[in-house]
Amino acid sequence: MTYVKSTFRHPALPKNDLGYTVDYYEGSLSTLCAGCGHDGISAAIAQGCWELSIEPHKVAKMSGIGCSSKTPAYFLSNSHGFNSVHGRMPSVATGANLANRDLIYLGVSGDGDTASIGMGQFVHVVRRNLNMVYLVMNNGCYGLTKGQDSATADAGSKSKAGSVNLFESIDLASLAIELGATFVAQSFSGDKGQLIPLVKAAMSHPGFAFINVISPCVTFNNNPGSTKSYDYVRDHMETTAMMDFVPLAREIKADYAEGSVEKLTMHDGSTISLRKLDQAWDPLDRSSAMNAVLNSKIKGEILTGLLYMAQDTSDLHDLLQTSDRPLNSLNQSELCPGSTYLDALNASLR
Ligand SMILES: Cc1ncc(C[n+]2csc(CCOP(=O)(O)OP(=O)(O)O)c2C)c(N)n1
Ligand code: SF4
């Protein structure tokens, strides 16, 4: 087996608006197991950023610990990156975002990293509406430490060793909606047609954008009794809508027959076109989204697509009325406005 990634690229590869081919958005050679769902997600992230013509140096990749949290090494090698401590990615992302709002924050986590050790941090980053994409590569187990059940493993599902999980699973998508996330989507690592537009829409959303991606662990949780295996997900996936994301910069053309498509306008004027499979689906209706996720769980199905989106949202910077410039660009007098200002501030708090 070779560990050298070929640098050869076909000279006719298409370029994006910045003149880059997609390989400029890739990372180093993956060391994950062959067939791991996480690699498909890394490829979708690279493709989505290429299609959006994002400057890689404008992205900060944040992660915790796990096979999933290793993936930032495998996409966007020209971006900033911080591989933090297990479950602590949200607080590091919060600090970085408050210091520099000019970057696009892309957090990658695992179901162990988020739903167990990192749960306390996860719930608070959601309710603070930090402007970031938070993507969970959800395989229902702790892949890196050899496949123990995670808190998203469904009750009754069977591990590779044959033990049955007795505990209720945590549903991260409905939890995120409940906590006030302003963009919540669910997808499958093997469905790039759905995942790429979702990544693009999430990266363009001004506020907390959560994507829960079912991502099978081929080594420890791809057995017949698992509800996160490739076979199970393929057999139980129900899609809310086919979607396409059109960034503001491009001319918006309506390609679909009226009546079968719903266009959602995002904060910046870009649009999401939903070609509905289920005509009753309304991603702007928060309580219906909660019910739909719950009902699909009761039926043992995995509902995928854009589950919920708030069109008007105030992110943490709006709420705190922070400086609109990165802190490292502020000068001494802006950072320290003087004792008169401080006295007035103290007086206002007495
Ligand atoms: C503080 C701390 N506790 C425990 C661990 C051991 N550990 C490393 S990764 C991991 C779980 C990984 O599972 P998940 O986040 O679901 O990622 P996956 O490997 O499945 O992608 C654990 C428990 C650790 N590295 N640090
Ligand atoms: S152990 Fe599982 S999650 Fe980790 S790289 Fe292998 S297949 Fe992927």
Q: Could you describe the 3D structure shown?
A:
There is one protein chain. Helices cover 29% and strands 19% of the residues. It has 350 residues and is α/β, with parallel strands linked by helices. An eight-stranded mixed β-sheet has the order 2-1-3-4-8-7-13-9, with helices on both faces. Strands 10-12-11 form a three-stranded antiparallel β-sheet. The structure holds thiamine diphosphate (TPP) and iron/sulfur cluster (SF4). Thiamine diphosphate binds next to helix 2, helix 4 and strand 5. Thiamine diphosphate is lined by residues 65-68, 86, 110-113, 117, 137, 139, 141-145, 150, 217.
What is the element layout, followed by pairings?
Elements: H1 37-51, E1 59-63, H2 67-70, E2 80-83, H3 89-99, E3 104-110, H4 111-115, H5 119-127, E4 132-138, E5 141-142, E6 148-149, H6 172-178, E7 183-188, H7 192-203, E8 208-214, H8 230-236, E9 237-239, E10 241-246, E11 261-265, E12 271-276, H9 286-298, E13 302-309, H10 316-320, H11 332-335, H12 339-348
Parallel strand pairs: 1-2, 1-3, 3-4, 4-8, 7-8, 9-13
Antiparallel strand pairs: 5-6, 7-13, 10-12, 11-12
Iron/sulfur cluster binds at residues 32-33, 36, 38, 67, 139, 143-144, 217-220.
Bound molecules: thiamine diphosphate, iron/sulfur cluster
The dominant shape is globular
User: Secondary-structure element sequence?
Assistant: HEHEHEHHEEEHEHEHEEEEHEHHH
Number of helices: 12
Lateral strand order in the biggest sheet: 2-1-3-4-8-7-13-9
